[in-house]
Amino acid sequence: MKRILSLSVAVAIISSCGVSKVTRGEQYAKMYEEKPVTLLVMPPINNTTNVEAKEFLYTSISRPLAEAGYYVISPLLAMDVLKAESAYDAELFVNGSLTTFQKFFGADAVIFSEINSWTKKGFGIETDLRYFIKSAYTGEILFDRSCQLYLDLSVQSGGGSAFSALADLVASAISTAFTEHIEAARKANYFIFRDIPQGKYSPMYLKDMDVAAEKKDVKVNVK
pLDDT tens digits for 133-191? Predict the structure, then answer.
């Protein structure tokens, strides 16, 4: 009987000391306070030697945000304006005032991204990205997440012979060479923005505050 009581007490203590879940309302409190509707995506800050990575990422950011219920200013339109105004380099604005973008584009918040790694590794693509959304009114960070993603492009036929293994090796090499890097960007965007508070045009707007938030740093291997 004493052992049963002792076990019950121990379980109760362990349960009470369990890690409490952080909600989206807590983790992204400023996002819920400001309630941004219109978002402007800035060209990525490329910290790698892969010059094409900037284009791959920039063209793939809008979709997951639009699906989350936000109005995203057309990247193509924004790109033309930013280039015309010599504002293509996001590095020039990341630590400065963003009120100009609010007045010119009507943006409530500005999305910045950093590419810290974008390389071919084995038969796949390895990326290390960070996204942060800043208020166009106050300059405060409303949302901040990063993702280390490895997109596995290897091909496996399922055969056990030496010939099959060689064929898989060749197929994997071809797949890596011709697979669009945009796929890696899309998957990284998905994992980062799947935890963003839903926007005004989503049926879950302001109803997801009690949803358990994910970790701010994501590490994932995908096919």
Answer: 999 999 999 999 999 999 998 765 555 544 444 334 444 444 444 445 788 899 999 99
Per domain, the residue ranges of the chain are 21-117+127-148+181-212
Region for residue 99 given its phi and psi (left: phi exceeds 0; alpha: psi -120 to 50; beta: otherwise): alpha
Q: Is the pTM of this model over 0.85?
A: no
Within the chain, residue ranges assigned H as helices are 2-16, 24-27, 29-34, 53-58, 62-67, 75-84, 99-105, 162-178, 182-193
Measured at the CA of 118, the angle between CA 187 and CA 221, to 5 degrees, comes to 45
DSSP 61: S
The answer to whether domain 21-117+127-148+181-212 has CATH 2.60.40.10 is no
Q: Which DSSP state fits 161?
A: S
Evaluate if residue 115 carries a pLDDT over 70. yes
CB of 123 within 8 A of CB of 175?
yes
Using CA atoms, how far residue 116 sits from 23, 39, 53, 187, in Å, is 28, 23, 10, 16
